[in-house]
Amino acid sequence: EYDGERNSEGERHGRGKARLPNGDTYDGEYEHGFRSGRGTYRFRSGAYYTGEYLQNKKHGQGTFFYPDGSKYEGDWVNDQRHGYGEYTYANGDIYTGEWFNHNKHGQGTYDYKDTGSKYVGGWVNGNQEGEAEVIHLNHRFKGKFLNGNPVGRGKYVFDIGCEQHGEYILSEQDKGEEEEEPSLLVAPKWKASEITKLTLWTPHGENLPSPREASLPSLHEVSSEVFSAERDAGEEDEGSREEEENKDQEDQGEE
């Protein structure tokens, strides 16, 4: 069903309202039969998008409200989150930064609501990767990440005025002679080397003043474990939303 303006060729053109056979509705602008311009598309699932369209696809600035209460507000290209935007998760976590082909990609900040911790740094295809800083309530970690885990040399900086240098290493896993590859992924472990006064961070090595051997496993194991757990919790629900959204987007083609 369509109620709205048409051009001389009889195409939907201008302002109009439409109800699709699957129960979805659209209220907004059309050009030559396509949703183009600003409009609001409501899915029968309860999700809805309000923003800019180009030839039936989300394109430009827009906000998508998901059924679970999460939302994305920012740039869209060809129906994909692409550019710069903010994603608020159902649990209150927030990612603000760059997107590429629907994934977090580039530079961005992820805020964990429950703990107040924050990841600031690089992302690649939805995973934390590259140089980054993880900020906790009374200390922070500076280093590199790969596939969502810290890797290599880095340092913990404490608000009391000192910092601990070290590196994240993959612990060796015992394997039988018949096994060619480890059967389980092993989380990297923090290996402390020294505590110093505050220094400038460089990922390729530092000149450390008067180092002394030290180990603060409890602080750092807790930091890395809390961070990894929070990351997993913040990401776990998005896959189901994507699946539902993709289905809904396919339904649009039936109009």
UniProtKB/TrEMBL annotation:
It is found in: Cytoplasm, Cytoskeleton, Flagellum axoneme. It comes from the Eukaryota. SMART domains: MORN (SM00698). Residues 1-13 have a biased composition (Basic and acidic residues). Keywords: Cell projection, Cilium, Cytoplasm, Cytoskeleton, Flagellum, Meiosis, Repeat. The keyword Aminoacyl-tRNA synthetase does not apply. Residues 233-255 have a biased composition (Acidic residues). Functions as part of axonemal radial spoke complexes that play an important part in the motility of sperm and cilia. This is Radial spoke head 1 homolog.
